[in-house]
Amino acid sequence: GENVEQHPSTLSVQEGDSAVIKCTYSDSASNYFPWYKQELGKRPQLIIDIRSNVGEKKDQRIAVTLNKTAKHFSLHITETQPEDSAVYFCAAKVTGGGNKLTFGTGTQLKVEL
Amino acid sequence: NAGVTQTPKFQVLKTGQSMTLQCAQDMNHNSMYWYRQDPGMGLRLIYYSASEGTTDKGEVPNGYNVSRLNKREFSLRLESAAPSQTSVYFCASREDRGLADTQYFGPGTRLTVL
To answer: Cβ contact (<8 Å) for B103 and A46?
Structure first.
């Protein structure tokens, strides 16, 4: 089955700096890659996603890049703000079989003032 | 729309007790999922239901059973709770119109097994 690895497990940045979180996946058939943000005590919420036919996608201060050849994808957050502090999860989906997502282990992002 | 709802929010069980976690969605989604979240391990899939009347095992199904009662409801049952099942449980449903793939999560149930 699919295996998703996520790095780093913790990331501390100064407010205004950029943050990058990286994920690798194992199954070349994976075709959908969402990123979820989870604030303390809350549910995971989708912040951005990308499909395998696209190399990059942006939404205001966040962007995701995908390298299918290397089987890795990354989340980029620019001009970080304290409210960006949360745990971020990447995931990968293989077509069929219930359209299941396999999640990475999460990155705790802390934005310091 | 309430989205995905879960009950209870918190539960404490003794080893060997049983309980059912309830999940419902009002978005007319076909697919529903149960995950558990443990520190440092992300979200792991327990069971899923691709459509009403079908259920399948995920990554960590041992010790659990599920029921897809109807299109709206998907319950998770622990027949004989063990301390290893202490976790936060999330239910999710998937938007499956056209190319949409987003999974929407419920608020979670925090379960402690003593």
So the answer is: yes
E-state strands within A1-113: 4-7, 10-14, 19-25, 30-38, 45-51, 56-59, 62-67, 72-77, 86-94, 101-103, 107-112
3-state DSSP assignment of residue A1 = coil
B95 in contact with chain A, both atoms CB, cutoff 8 A: no
pLDDT at B99: 67
Interface contact B90-A103, CB threshold 8 A: no
Query: Which is it for strands A56-59 and A107-112: parallel, antiparallel or unpaired?
Result: unpaired
How many CB atoms within 10 Å of residue A82? Answer: 10
Rounded to 10 degrees, the C-alpha dihedral A76/A7/A37/B22 comes to 150
* pLDDT digit string, tens, across residues B7-55: 999 999 999 999 999 999 999 999 999 999 998 888 999 999 999 999 9
Q: Which helix (H) or strand (E) holds A77?
A: strand A72-77
Higher pLDDT, A95 or A69: A69
Q: How far is CA A40 from CA A34, A113, B100, in A?
A: 20, 19, 27
Distance from C-alpha of A33 to C-alpha of B63, rounded to nearest angstrom? 30
